[in-house]
Specification:
about 75% helix, MetI-like fold, mainly alpha
Length: about 270
């Protein structure tokens, strides 16, 4: 822990990310107001003691909705990275071990998925299944599969060439055992770093999809959806866009700094460079 928190990027990223996680956790049991409660009397009120971040066009408390939106952003990040990691690791390990036809098939499949950006994939999926947060997570998760598959393949190939793999085979360890006990633990660090970075990208992607109306649907709170609703009232109520935008920037910056700190700490090349 001393090594991690001795890194400035990790420390700042951890602090920023902790604020988002704490706000999301608190919103599960308490928010200043019901995030979906409307009040015609309090609509478009500026920041005040009763509503620190103001209210929107329906009189809903912006602070409560920002806190609730943090939960959706974290869920999207976790689910999409889990989808990409679980399938991508299996594909990457299979490509690195079997090579030849399997390797070629995995790489060409990855190229095919890369040809469809997350937004386009989301449009294809939601046009068939309907717009929702679940379908947006599915679209982003599918886009992440080739990212982790390629990384897993590249790192695993270098591990398979190491002497301890040859020694394990000479000792009678099965190929599945080698993959589980020796290869996978040695590729976790770059996968963890990549997963952290993609977590931040997932928050941005979900916000973008919700802004387009393809992600989280009303009345559920979403930072991207809040920005979409705020654009009509920019001149009258700029706080409706400022605070959700700051929340997105805060979360993405914190997670990116956290990923940079992990890379600086876990990557042996970065350690030697220091």
């Amino acid at each position: 822990m001393k090594r991690f928190f001795g890194n400035l990027n990790f420390s700042v990223g951890f602090a920023l990310s902790a604020v988002v996680i704490i706000a999301a956790g608190i919103s599960l049991i308490w928010t200043p107001f019901d995030a979906n409660k409307m009040s015609a009397v309090e609509r478009l009120q500026g920041p005040s003691w009763s509503h620190p971040l103001g209210t929107d066009q329906y009189g809903r408390d912006t602070l409560s909705r920002v806190m609730t939106g943090a939960v959706n952003s974290i869920i999207v990040g976790l689910v999409t990275v889990a989808i990409g990691l679980s399938i991508g690791i299996v594909m990457g390990l299979a490509a690195s071990y079997y090579g030849r036809f399997v390797d070629e098939a995995v790489m060409r499949f990855s190229d095919l998925l890369f040809g469809f950006p997350a937004v386009l994939t989301a449009i294809l999926i939601t046009s068939t299944l309907g717009p929702s947060m679940i379908n947006a997570m599915l679209a982003i998760g599918i886009f992440y599969i080739p990212v982790f598959a390629r990384l897993t393949r590249a790192v695993a190939i270098t591990v398979y060439e190491r002497e301890f793999i040859t020694a394990a085979r000479a000792g009678g360890v099965s190929e599945l055992g080698i993959m589980w006990r020796h290869v996978l633990p040695n590729i976790l660090s770059p996968l963890l770093i990549q997963g952290t970075i993609q977590f931040a990208v997932a928050i941005l992607a979900e916000a973008g999809l919700s802004y387009l109306g393809l992600g989280t649907q009303p009345p559920a709170a979403s930072w991207g959806r809040m920005l979409n609703e705020a654009q009509t009232f920019m001149s009258r109520a700029p706080w409706m866009a400022v605070f959700p935008g700051l929340a997105i920037a805060w979360a993405v910056l914190g997670i990116n700094l956290l990923g940079d700190g992990l890379r600086d700490t876990l990557d042996p090349k970065m350690v030697r460079a220091r």
